[in-house]
Amino acid sequence: MNELPLIQHLIDGQLVAGGTRSVDVFNPATGQAEKRVLLADKHTVEQAIASAHAAYPAWRATPPLKRARVMSKLKTLLEDNAERLCALLTAEHGKVLSDSMGELQRGIENVEYASYAPELLKGEHSKNVGPSMDSWSEFQPLGVTAGITPFNFPVMVPLWMWPMAIACGNTFVLKPSERDPSSALLVAELALQAGLPPGVLNVVNGDKEAVDALLTDKRVQAISFVGSTPIAEYIYATGCAHGKRVQALGGAKNHAVVMPDADIANAVNALMGAAYGSCGERCMAIPLVVAVGDATADAVLAGLKAEIAKMKVGPGTDSANDMGPLVTKAHLDKVKGFVDQGVQEGATLVVDGRNVQVAGHESGYFMGACLFDHVKPGMKIYQEEIFGPVLGVVRVKTLQEGMDLINAHEYGNGTCIFTRDGEAARYFSDHILVGMVGVNVPLPVPVAYHSFGGWKRSLFGDLSAYGPDAVRFYTKRKTITQRWPSAGVREGAVFSFPTNR
Amino acid sequence: MNELPLIQHLIDGQLVAGGTRSVDVFNPATGQAEKRVLLADKHTVEQAIASAHAAYPAWRATPPLKRARVMSKLKTLLEDNAERLCALLTAEHGKVLSDSMGELQRGIENVEYASYAPELLKGEHSKNVGPSMDSWSEFQPLGVTAGITPFNFPVMVPLWMWPMAIACGNTFVLKPSERDPSSALLVAELALQAGLPPGVLNVVNGDKEAVDALLTDKRVQAISFVGSTPIAEYIYATGCAHGKRVQALGGAKNHAVVMPDADIANAVNALMGAAYGSCGERCMAIPLVVAVGDATADAVLAGLKAEIAKMKVGPGTDSANDMGPLVTKAHLDKVKGFVDQGVQEGATLVVDGRNVQVAGHESGYFMGACLFDHVKPGMKIYQEEIFGPVLGVVRVKTLQEGMDLINAHEYGNGTCIFTRDGEAARYFSDHILVGMVGVNVPLPVPVAYHSFGGWKRSLFGDLSAYGPDAVRFYTKRKTITQRWPSAGVREGAVFSFPTNR
Amino acid sequence: MNELPLIQHLIDGQLVAGGTRSVDVFNPATGQAEKRVLLADKHTVEQAIASAHAAYPAWRATPPLKRARVMSKLKTLLEDNAERLCALLTAEHGKVLSDSMGELQRGIENVEYASYAPELLKGEHSKNVGPSMDSWSEFQPLGVTAGITPFNFPVMVPLWMWPMAIACGNTFVLKPSERDPSSALLVAELALQAGLPPGVLNVVNGDKEAVDALLTDKRVQAISFVGSTPIAEYIYATGCAHGKRVQALGGAKNHAVVMPDADIANAVNALMGAAYGSCGERCMAIPLVVAVGDATADAVLAGLKAEIAKMKVGPGTDSANDMGPLVTKAHLDKVKGFVDQGVQEGATLVVDGRNVQVAGHESGYFMGACLFDHVKPGMKIYQEEIFGPVLGVVRVKTLQEGMDLINAHEYGNGTCIFTRDGEAARYFSDHILVGMVGVNVPLPVPVAYHSFGGWKRSLFGDLSAYGPDAVRFYTKRKTITQRWPSAGVREGAVFSFPTNR
Amino acid sequence: MNELPLIQHLIDGQLVAGGTRSVDVFNPATGQAEKRVLLADKHTVEQAIASAHAAYPAWRATPPLKRARVMSKLKTLLEDNAERLCALLTAEHGKVLSDSMGELQRGIENVEYASYAPELLKGEHSKNVGPSMDSWSEFQPLGVTAGITPFNFPVMVPLWMWPMAIACGNTFVLKPSERDPSSALLVAELALQAGLPPGVLNVVNGDKEAVDALLTDKRVQAISFVGSTPIAEYIYATGCAHGKRVQALGGAKNHAVVMPDADIANAVNALMGAAYGSCGERCMAIPLVVAVGDATADAVLAGLKAEIAKMKVGPGTDSANDMGPLVTKAHLDKVKGFVDQGVQEGATLVVDGRNVQVAGHESGYFMGACLFDHVKPGMKIYQEEIFGPVLGVVRVKTLQEGMDLINAHEYGNGTCIFTRDGEAARYFSDHILVGMVGVNVPLPVPVAYHSFGGWKRSLFGDLSAYGPDAVRFYTKRKTITQRWPSAGVREGAVFSFPTNR
User: Does the keyword Lipid metabolism belong to this entry (chains A, B, C, D) (predicted)?
Assistant: First the structure.
C-alpha cells in the first residue's frame, strides 16, 4: 500500500502534502486501488485559504480582460491535453472514454464562457439620477470563494465554478471528490500553466473535515456545492449560519414524459443515453419514463428492450463499450439493492442487469441495464435517487396525471417531454415545477451561456450554477452615486491660472 | 385600554382579528398610547400564508403587463393619499412631515419601478444552441414570499419588497413593525383598491411569534428582512436552515470622509441632514465624520456647531421643526446612554442635546442634536449603531488612514467622501469595502432603478434589495431547451391532408 | 367652405395658423367634408423646428425620471379621454369605435413603455478597462427629431414615435396625415396638460412641402416614417442624403399559412379580423391565405364564406357594425379596381362586396368584404398592397411551396402560420424572410416592450420602430474613458492641509 | 514593373486575379514601388458577392458557438503570426513596428469580442404577453455584408467589421485600401486556416469601381465604411439610396483641453503620442491642444518642445525610431502644404519639421514633428483634418470658451480633457458634442467591448462601429409571437391513444 502513488494538494502554486489521513483511490473497472489520496486536515485547508487570501488583492486589481485571457489560454490547453485528462477521468470514475470526452467538452464551454468576463462584468450607468448627479453599479469580486464537487463529473463540475469565480476577480479553494480527485488537480495545474498566479486557485483533497473547515472559515465568502440533497442542505444551512452566500445543488429524480404523438424511435434512442449513459450516475439522468397511455408505454418498452439487448458493458477504456462500471463497490451494492427492492415492491423487472459479468474484469464494479415496468409513486425506486443504470416506466392516462406526479416529487432538477404538439410542450414547460425542461431533448442541461439550476429540493439558494447567474453569485454589487461641487477649476474660483498665486 | 382603536391584520382582502396578545402603539411626540396593535399568533400567520397560497395560481397566470398596471394605479393612489399616509406615519413614528413625505416619495419610486415588470421579466433566448435546437430562460415567480420590516421607514421599506415581489407574480405576507404599523396597512388597502386581488398581499402584525411562523412555514419560499444585524443573522440562518432563499439587511455605521479640498459649507449642510434627519434613525444616516487633517476637522466642527444652533426640535406635525422625537422611550434612554458613555470614554462632547425639552410636549421622546469631537475607534460610540441624533468626528491624517478605519469596521452599508478631486473619489470608491458609496452625496441611497445593499455584516444574502436584484430575488430561473422531431406535418408524413384518412 | 372648422398646428405650446393652403377633412361614413386642415408651408415647419430646437437644452437636462413621469401622467390622461379621442378618430378615419379603442390601447402601451425610460437609458459601465481606467457609455438624446405618420393609425403610430423620442430627451416635430389629423393633435394637447413644456412636442399639419422641409432642415437629426414603400424609399434616401438617421417603414403583403393540422375554426375566426378589420387598411392586415392542400383550402373558404355572411358593414359609430367605410372616395375606387382586375386575371371571386350599400349612408365610402380563391403569384392582387377588405386564397401543396412564395415577395412585414405542430412552426419561423411572425396569431404586432419592424422592402433602416430599438434610434452613444492623475489630494502632494500654505 | 509581385483578390477561398487595371504599392520608407495590386472591376466584385451569397445559407445555419470558435482560433493564429503581419503592415504603411503591434493588438481584441457571439446574440423572451401567448426576438443575420476600409489601420479597421459580421452569421466582402492591402489579405487567409468556410469572407482589392459595385448590388445588405467625411457622405447617401443599411465613419479634428490644474508632465507625454504617433495619420489623433490660460499654454508648449527634440524619425523597421514616414508622396506634400499655409495665416510655427531628412532614406516620405502656437479657429490648419505630424495650440481663457470651439467644429469624433477636477471632467463629458471622450486619456478609443463612434459629421448612421452596436448593425430583428390551439394531444381530443383509432 505504501507504494501507491499519493495524490497531494495544490496550494500556492505547489503540490504539497497536508493531513495525516489518506484513502485509496480505486479503478472501478478492475476493483484495484491504484493510488491513495491525502485527506486535508483543518490546518491544511487554512493554508489553502490563506494562500487564496494573499493572492486576492493583486488578482482583484488585474483588469478583467487579462483575467479573461487566462481562461482563453486554459481552453486551448484543455483541448491540447484532452486525451490525458480523459484517461485519468475514466481510470478513476469508470465512465467510457467518449463520455469523458463529452464531459470535458462541457467543462471547456464553461471556461469559454468565463473568458467573456469583460462583457459579463459590465455594470449599469445612469446619467442624471438627479440634476448633475450620476449613479452606477459595479460588480466587484467577493474575495476567497470555495467549491465542493461530486465524484460523478470530476472535471466538469469544478469547471462550472472556479473559472467564473476567478474571471470575476475572486480567488478559489476547490475540494473535489476524494474518489476521483486526479483530473481536477490536473486541470488546476494547466490553469497555472495558462498564467494563473499562484494562490488564485488552490485544490485541497479531503472529506468532511475539509468541508467543515471551508464552511466555517471567516475568510471564505461564498460556497458552491454540488452533491446529494442531505449534504446540500447541510452545506446551505451551515454556510449561511456562518454568514456566507451559498448555492447548494442536490439530488434529482428526472421524469421523461412520452406522449402518444411522440416519435417513439427518437424518444427511445434519447432515453437509452439519458438512462444508462455514465451508468445513470448523473443528476440530469432520466431514471423514470412517464408514458401517457398503455400503447405508448408498450411501444417505448419494446424499443428499450431491443436497444438494451445491443448494449455493451465493459471497461471504459475500450471504445466498443457503451457503459462502464459503477464508481465504487459500495455504490454497486446499493444500486443492486434498489433493484431488489423494486422487485419486492411489485414493479415488473423487464430487463435484469444485476448479474452481468465482464470477462477479464470480474472484480470490476459492473452491472447491466435494468428496466422496470409498472413503477408506482409509492415505491422506493420511484421516490429515491438511485444513481445507477435503472430505468422505470410509470404508466399514466393523461399528461396532466403525469405532471401531477412530477410536481409532487420532492426533486425538481430536470425533466423532458416527447411530443410533436406545440400546445402540449408549452403547457408542460409552463406548469411543471422543474428548473430545466427539455422538449424532445432528454438531458436539458443548459448550454454554458445559460445557467444550471433545479427547483424544489434540488437547489438551495437563489442563483443557479454557471452562466449569467454565476456572474452575479461570484460578485457583489457596489453602487456609486456621484455629484461634484461647483466653484472648482471650471469656474475659476480656486485653481485656475495658478501662476498668478 | 379597551377603548384604544385596535389595529388588525389584512388577510384575504379583509381586516381581521387574530391572536390574543396586543401591544400599545404610542405617539412619540406626546408619549401617549393612542392605539393598540394585535400580535398575530402562529395560526393567524398560517391563515395569511394560506390566503397567499390560494391566490398564487391565478396571480401567477396573470400577464405581467396586467400585474404591472396595478402598480401604476397604486402609484397614483399613493400620490392622491399622500397627506393621509404621512399623517399616520408621523403620528406613529415621530419624524417630521416633510421627512415622511420624502420617505413616501422614495417608496412610490419603488412602486414605479415594479410597474416596469414586462421589461424586467424578459428572459434570454438563444437560437440554435445546437442544430435546430433553441434554449431560453424564463423568470418565474416563487410562490408565497414574505417581508419583515423595521419601524424606521414604515412606508418605504415594505414598498422595497412587495410591489416587486407581486409584480413578478408572487403573493406576499408582510409583517411590518409593531411600533408603527398603520401606514403599511393603509398602503396595502390602497393596493387592493388599485386592483390587487384578495390574498395576493396580506399584512400580519406581530412580533417574534409571527416572524418564526414565517421563517419555518414550508409554503413560504423567500424572506426579505430589514432590521438590526443580530436579528438579520438570525433570520438568515433560520430561513436558510428551512431551505428558503433569504436576503437580510442589518445594521450600519456609515462614515463620511471630508477631504481638505472639499467644499466645506456644502459638506456641512449635507452632514446636518444625514446625521440628524429623522433623529439619525436611518440605516443610511451618517453618525461619523472622518476629517482628513485637523484644519478640516476644525472647519467642519465650526460649521456643524453653527448649524446645530439653528435647528428646531419639536413635534413632527409642526412644519417649522427640523427634528421630531425618537421612536420610543426605551430607545431615547438607550441613545442618551450612548452619549453618556462617549463622554466617559473620553470623546469631547461639543454639543450636548441630551436635556432638550419641548414645551408642551414634556412627555414626548425628544432629545437634541449631540456632536462629539475626538471620537476614537476603540470607543463604543464608534463601534455600535446608535440610531440617534449623535454625530462624532474622527480625526485622521490621510485618506488612507480614514479608509483603513472604514474597512476595519464590522458594517459596510454606506459611506461617502467630500472632495473635488477625481482621483481621490475614484480611489475611495474602488477600495472601500462598503456597498453604497457617495461622492459629495451624503446619503447614497441608490435610486429605485438601481439596488440597495451593504457589504460585510450589513447584508446577508447574495442579492440586494429592490431594483434589478429584487427581480432576480423574487423569481426562479427556468431554462427550456427545445427541438422538434422531423417527419411531422411539414414533411407530410403523418398528418397532412387529414380528410384523406 | 369658409364655415368649416379649421385645424391648425401646435407650435411652442400654442395652436397657431401657418401656411396658406388647406384641404378638406371628410367623414368617410357620410362622404361630407366636415373640417379643413391647414397645410404648413416651409416657413411654418421651420417655426416648429425652431421651437423644438429652443426647448431642447432644458429638456435634455431634465432627469430621465422626470421625463418618464410626464409619460405616466399622459397615460392616465389618455385613458380618461379615451371616448373623446376615439370619437374623433372614427369621425375622420371611419373605423368602428371598438377598433379605435383597440388602436388607442396599443398607443397607450407605447406611452407606458416610454415611462420606463430610467431603466431603458442605462449605459454600460466597465471598471478597469486598463489599470485604474474606467469606461462607460451614455445614451444621449439627438436633439430635434421628427415623425411623419400615415392615415390608418392616426393615434397609434404617432405614439410609436414621439413618447419614446421625448422620454429619451429629444424634442419632436410630428406631421400626421392630413386626412385625419385631429386625434394626433388632441393627444399632443393632452401631453402638454401632462406637463410637457412648450416646444418639446410640436405638430404641423401638411403635405409634401412640410415633409421636404423636415427632410432637409439641418436641425432635424432623425426621421421616423410609416407609410407606403415608394414614399418610405424617398424618405430614407432623401433624409440620409441630408446626413440624418432615418427609419422608414413601408408597405406589406402579409401571408397567413394554414396547415392541414390547424384548428380550422380558430384560424377562420382569426383571419376574419385580420383580413377585414379596419377594412384591411393596416400594414399588419392579412390579405392572403396560403392554404396547404386543397382540403385545407376548401375548409378555410367554407368557414370564411359563412362568417362573411354574418358581417355587418356600416358607420363606425354604430357599435353593431363590424366594418366601417374606407378612408376616402379615391381609395374606395382604387380598391374596387383591384377587385375588378383580380376577376379579369382569373382569380375566382367567391364573395363580392363591391356593391354593398349602407342604407342612410349612400355617400359613405363603404364596400363589403371580398374573397378570392385561386389567387396566383403572377396576379396584381397577389403582388400589390390593396389596403382594402379583400382576402385572397392561394393554394399550395406543401409548406415549403408556401414559404417559397412568401420569401420571393418584395415585402416582408408580417406573416403567420396556423398549425399544432411544433416542428412546422419552428421551421417556418426560422426560415421565413419576414420580420414579424405569428404562430396561431394572425396579426403578430409585437407588444410595446418588443419592437416593430419588417424585412425586405417593408423597412428601410437598421432599427425597428418602438420598443428597445426605438431607445437606440432616438439616442446617440457617448463613450467616456477616464483615469485620474496621481499626486493629487489623496497623496497630499498638492492640496492637503491647505492652511499650512 | 512587370516583375513586381502582384497582389490578388481572395474569392471563394482562393487567391484569384480579376480586373485589368493595377496600381503600385510603395514602401513609404524607401519611396520604392515594391508590389502592384490588381483593381477589381465590377465583374470581379460580383464574383465575390456571388461567393458570399452562396456561402450564406450554410453559414447562417451554423450554431453561433461554432462560428464563435472560429474567432477564438483566429485570435490564436493572429498572435502566432504577429511578427509576419506587422512586418507587412510596416512595409506598406510605414508606421513603426511597435505601433503596428499595437494596431494588431487592438484588432485582436475585436476578434476576441466577436468570439463572445453566443452571449451577444441572445434575444429577449417574454412569457405571457397575453394569456398563454409568448413573444421573443431573434437577431438573425442579414446575408451578404461589406466593408470598405482606409489605409491608416490596414489590419485593425477590417477587424472592426468582418469578425463580428461573420460571427453574427453573415458573409462578407472586404475592400481594403489599395495603398497597403497585403496585411488585411493575410488576416483573411488566416481566417480560412482557422476554419472559415470558403466564401464566408472574401477580399477584393480595388478603387471607386469596386466601391460602387458594392454600393449598388442588391445582394449586399449592409455597408460599413471608415474614411474621410466627403467619401463617408457619398457612401451613406448612395448605399441608403439603394436601400441598404450603412454606417459611414468620416473625418475628425480632435481637441485636447488642458486645464490649469492638470498634471502638465503627464499631459505632455500623452499629447506627444497622440499628436505624432503614426505621423498623426489616425482619426483619433490629437492635432489640437486647447490650453486654458496662457500659463497653461506656455507650460504645455515648453514641455512639447523639449520632448520633440528627443524624437527620432526614420524607417519603422528600426525599433529606435518614434515616427516613420507618411503613407505616400502626395500625402507628404499635402501635409507640408498645410504647414506652409499655417505660417501664412499667422500661426506661430514653434517647431518646424518640414525639412527633416533621414540619412540613407532620402526618397522616403519623411517629415518631422511640427508644432504651432496661436492657432485660431478661422485658420485652415484649425478647420481641416491634416492627418500629419502637426500639432497646434489654441489659447483660451476658460473651459467654456474651449468647449464652445469644440462644439462649433464640424467634426465630433474624439476629444479629451486633462484635469484633476471631478466637476470639470463631468461638465466637459456631459456637454461636449463629441462621441468619444477621454478624461486624462488622450486617445479615448473605446475598448473592444464598447463601441466606436463620433458625432456630427464624423459618423453617418445610427449605430457605432464594433462592440455591442456592431451586433445590432449586423443583425436584423425578428419577433415571433406564439400561442397554441387547445384540444390537441394534451386534452386528448385528436391524437391521443392513436392505437385506438
Answer: no
